[in-house]
Amino acid sequence: MGCCEFIMKTILVIINSIVILSGLALLVTGGVYLSKAHEYFDVEELNEYSSDIKPIAIPLMVIGGILLVVGSVGCCGAISGKSGLLNIYITVVILTVIVEVAVCVFCVVKKDAILDASVKGGEYLVNNVYYGNATDTDIAAINSIQYLLKCCGTTGKDSYNSSGFPRSCCDDYVYEDAIAGNLNLGLSCGDDAELYADGCTDAFTQNFNDIGLGIGVIVGIIIVFELFCVIAACVSKKHDMVA
Fold it and tell me: By C-alpha distance, which of 165, 151, 154 is closest to 121?
């Protein structure tokens, strides 16, 4: 085995190991979201919003599964040095890149619809509190969102009526399941706490865009890795044929 071939095969094994781990990470992320989605959309009126948001998790799992298969084939091909496996690997990787690009385009197209559905769901919850129609589930959802995103109402404390805003609008609030269904309305956070100035619509939009950008960068890096693997596999296969 030549030095160049050894280096290329080593690179293939390392990169495909990373691809396998990335695939597992995406599978777990998508799977956890789907298994927990009912907790965030347990309100009957919000079920329609969950059906709009779930498509973002399914493509993640599809990409994760594909990466897992591709990485496994690549590792086996590099370790065994079988030209047939490398041919399959090259073909699968090229097809995978095409699928990944298509999925990314799909997510970009669905982005505004997903964001709009999420914002409408938040507005529905806040309006229920404003008009005094909120259930314990609504209140728990609001407290959870405001606690996690560090925000208050849809556009700030003025989203709520003169009775005050939920305690979860304050930075000293700690979310607990036992008290999640309590609003604890007040007109101030007290001397030892500060009120979140940002509304949840802006906070969610910012987080959504940041997460989307992060996923896009990760997928882009993975695609670059995959294309490099195709080149490495071609070089390795060429050495096998010469040998």
Answer: 154
- Cα separation of 127 and 111, whole Å? 24
Q: What is the pLDDT of residues 82-141, one digit of tens each?
A: 777 778 888 888 887 888 888 888 888 888 888 888 888 888 989 888 888 888 888 888
Q: What is the pLDDT of residues 179-213, one digit of tens each?
A: 888 888 888 898 889 999 999 999 999 988 888 88
The answer to whether 180 touches 139, Cβ cutoff 8 Å, is yes
**What phi and psi, each to the nearest 5 degrees, are found at residue 232?**
-65, -40
The answer to whether the CB of 15 falls within 8 A of the CB of 67 is: no
Asked whether the beta carbons of 141 and 125 are under 8 A apart, the reply is yes
Per DSSP, 156 falls in state: S
The answer to whether the CB of 8 falls within 8 A of the CB of 235 is yes
